Amino acid sequence: MPSSTMPPPTPTSLYGGAAGRRVTVRDLAAAKERHEKWPMLTAYDAMTARVFDEAGVPVLLVGDSAAMVVYGYDSTIPVTVDDLLPLTAGVVRGSSRALVVADLPFGSYQASPAQALESAARFLKEAGAHAVKLEGGHRVLPQVEALVSAGVPVMGHLGLTPQSVNVFGGYRVQGRGESGEELMKDAKDLERAGAFALVLECVPAELAERVTTSLSIPTIGIGAGPATDAQVLVWQDLMGLTPHPARFVKRYGDLGADLDRAARAFAADVVSGAFPAQEHTYR
């Protein structure tokens, strides 16, 4: 598409106000005060990070969802710190203004605050991440406090926490009935512990709205209704690469079909001898 017909960058003063520098956690806090919504996308490599960064997405998450969409596992549990470090480094190098958040994978922070700090330090020092995300409520409060005290910005994650899928018995909506009050308490405790933002995944919309209005830090919804301060999706879901996306996913493209057509056309040209043609050949 010619540049003259390209849509403008995402119309958010959060991003525009950070022109020439990285978005910071203070920018996100200010957006909450302005009641300004913003998008977050996953990214796992430099090229897609550059595209999303230039499109105006202010926060990029190097999610442990890489376990499925990059490494081919059937859950997030097998992925390791060593698996995610090079992906995070690529996203940092490929972006120039987005805040890059790295997921702490299963087994890298649950044992102790010291373990959490060791893992988070690797993401900041070796990969250049600007913040980390971890899952859970009251059980991880000591970890959150230790990280924040050490200068590591922490994003929390409540509701359907995929690293606990075996405990939940599958990917189910969380926070209905009395468990909603427990989630609310966990959210407030995470804010007090110093978390700068909170992901709410697969929770009833009414509960997500209550949490959002009760906190001074921004909430980021994924399957949590429209009232959260931000929304996040896995980019492969967004672009139609996932064959059976969750109910909360809206597809904004059909990259899977485009890749299939291109691969078939390339293969056919090679078999027929149409590629490479003269214009693709050096003399």
From TrEMBL:
Cofactor mode of binding and number, as noted: Binds 1 Mg(2+) ion per subunit.
Gene Ontology CC: one annotated term: cytoplasm
Pathway participation: Cofactor biosynthesis; (R)-pantothenate biosynthesis; (R)-pantoate from 3-methyl-2-oxobutanoate: step 1/2
Its EC number(s): 2.1.2.11
EC class of the enzyme, as a word: transferase
Active-site residues, Swiss-Prot/TrEMBL: 201 (proton acceptor)
UniProt keyword list: Cytoplasm, Magnesium, Metal-binding, Methyltransferase, Pantothenate biosynthesis, Transferase
One Pfam family in the UniProt entry: Pantoate_transf
Residues the entry annotates as binding Mg(2+): 64, 103, 135
Required cofactor(s): Mg(2+)
Listed GO biological process terms: methylation; pantothenate biosynthetic process
Keyword Cytoplasm belongs to the record: yes
Top-rank lineage group of the source organism: Bacteria
Example GO molecular function: magnesium ion binding
Localization in the cell: Cytoplasm
Catalytic reaction(s) noted: (6R)-5,10-methylene-5,6,7,8-tetrahydrofolate + 3-methyl-2-oxobutanoate + H2O = 2-dehydropantoate + (6S)-5,6,7,8-tetrahydrofolate
Family note: Belongs to the PanB family.
Subunit structure: Homodecamer; pentamer of dimers.
Matches recorded under PANTHER family: 3-METHYL-2-OXOBUTANOATE HYDROXYMETHYLTRANSFERASE (PTHR20881)
Function summary: Catalyzes the reversible reaction in which hydroxymethyl group from 5,10-methylenetetrahydrofolate is transferred onto alpha-ketoisovalerate to form ketopantoate.
Protein name per UniProt: 3-methyl-2-oxobutanoate hydroxymethyltransferase
Record gene name: panB
